Amino acid sequence: xxxxxxxxxxxxLVGASWALxxxxxxxxxxxxxxxxxxxxxxxxxxxxxxxxxxxxISEIARLQVEKTALLKKQTKLLESIEGLLRDSFISHN
Length: 93
Known about the structure:
This protein has helices at 5-32, 37-92. The protein has 93 residues and is mainly alpha-helical. It has one domain. The longest helix is centred in the last third of the chain and has 56 residues, at 37-92.
């Protein structure tokens, strides 16, 4: 499968988003570990949310690009089938 610039950019954004989520977890744990396990866990989760949100948005964009490509292929195939059917019906009359 041929990758386009946009696909490469989306892959980069997904990787950067995961790095942001992991960095948020690390910073949350590092800064709040003296305050106890529950607060550390909660803050780490909250700190990871922006990165996880970016991951979800990037994956949705990637899925939409794949969906558009598949719909273009299906449309081309259906148009060729329609052309064949139209030609066969015209030749029978």
